[in-house]
TrEMBL record:
Membrane topology designation: Single-pass membrane protein
GO biological process entries: proton motive force-driven ATP synthesis
Transmembrane annotation, as ranges: none
Subcellular location: Membrane
Organism: Zephyranthes phycelloides
Family statement: Belongs to the ATPase B chain family.
Protein name in UniProt: ATP synthase CF0 subunit I
PANTHER family: ATP SYNTHASE SUBUNIT B, CHLOROPLASTIC (PTHR34264)
Coiled coil regions, renumbered to chain: none
Phylogenetic classification of the source organism: Eukaryota, Viridiplantae, Streptophyta, Embryophyta, Tracheophyta
GO cellular component, one term: proton-transporting ATP synthase complex
Length: 136
């Protein structure tokens, strides 16, 4: 084991004249390593920054589209509520009209005997005849 450790230690002491070796001087190798690492980060980091800005753009577009969809849904909801209110109002009007008509018919039928009924019909026929003469 000592031989293995000695061989690594001796790698740091190889002469650098025209041969490949390890530089164990930390102060000399740190700026080189940092510049290589920074160069790699900048080279590959450009894509990440572009991808991040694309994500931000898509997020803004998605928020805008969602806001527009919510606004449309709110408008549809309001239109539907207005339509349903008008339908309910018309339905109530129709029911009130039918009840009033039934009440009036009931009152007329209970008040009119056959003689009064005949006189009312004759009077209305007379009025219609007078209207026809005026229009001719």
């Amino acid at each position: 084991m000592k031989n293995l450790t000695d061989s690594f230690v001796s790698l740091g002491h190889w002469p650098s004249a025209g041969s490949f070796g390890f530089n164990t001087d930390i102060l000399a190798t740190n700026p080189i390593n940092l510049s290589v690492v920074l160069g790699v980060l900048i080279f590959f980091g450009k894509g990440v920054c572009a991808s991040y800005s694309e994500i931000e753009r898509e997020k803004v577009n998605l928020i805008n589209a969602t806001s527009y969809s919510l606004e449309q849904l709110e408008n549809y909801k309001n239109e539907t509520l207005h339509f349903e209110q008008q339908r309910a109002i018309n339905q109530v009007r129709q029911q009130v009209f039918q009840q009033a008509l039934q009440g009036a018919l009931g009152t007329l039928n209970s008040c009119l005997n056959s003689e009064l009924h005949f006189r009312t019909i004759s009077a209305n026929i007379g009025i219609l005849g007078a209207v026809e003469e005026i229009t001719d």
